[in-house]
Amino acid sequence: MASITNIVFDMGGVLMTFDSLRFARAFTDTEDDAALLNRALFARTEWSLLDAGAISHETLARIAAAALPERLLPNLQECIAHWPEHSEPIMPTNDLAARLSKEGYRLYLLSNASTRIDEQLNHCPAYPLMSGRVVSAEERLMKPDPSIYQLLCDRYSLDPATCLFVDDNRNNCQGAEVAGMQSFHFCTVDAAANVAKLEALLER
After folding, report:
1. CB of 112 within 8 A of CB of 136?
2. What's the whole-model pTM score?
3. How far apart are alpha carbons 153 and 160 in whole angstroms?
């Protein structure tokens, strides 16, 4: 392994939770309604178009509204307005980021996310430690396209071989490897154990 000096973190599922059904439950009173809201808003292909910067939040809101009974439209509006507040820090990785920063690693963010990403990042403890970021909706590029990893490297003058990319999606890890980075597939189910594996990898 080449000497790693830069750690590139994904956000959702690595630094911050993205549990769409839990978000939907926060704005509904029954499991059935939560499931309806989740399917109408988060669990649809148009959500990826939002992350790609291909559609607006207003367009997605109209699409979701058309899939819901009228009684749930106020719930939808509240969910759209406030769901990022329910995205919580995954503390094992945030604590790891703090340790790595103190050890001299430079930290970066590379996320498939919408233009509202800062509504999650403003309560992500690791984010102030970051030296830079690339967000899919802002660039109109998405992981696992190797171009988005190369964009990060070009923007911040990084050698891809010195970068370790951490993501909970294997395809995104493979995209990073195609771009010349090393990668670590992170499993959110046992974040603490995965942090230990990542630390061991960096100590080699």
Report:
1. yes
2. 0.95
3. 6
Q: Specify the DSSP element, H or E, that contains 135.
A: strand 130-135
Within its chain, how far is the Cα of 19 from the centroid?
A: 11
As a whole number of Å, the end-to-end CA separation of the chain is: 8
Spatial separation of the C-alpha atoms in residues 170 and 176, rounded to whole Å: 10
Instruction: Give me the residue label for tokens 């990319």.
Output: 165
Residue 4 confidence (pLDDT) above 70: yes
CB-based contacts of 21, cutoff 8 Å, min separation 6: 34, 35, 38
What is the maximal distance between C-alpha atoms in the chain? 57
Place of tokens 């800062």: 118
CB 161 within 8 A of CB 180: yes
**What residue spans of 11-140 are helical by DSSP H?**
20-25, 31-41, 45-51, 57-66, 73-82, 91-102, 118-121, 136-139
The pLDDT, as a whole number, for residue 1 is 52
Contact 103, 3 (CB under 8 A): no
167 strand-pairing partners: 185
Q: Flag whether pLDDT at 151 surpasses 80.
A: yes
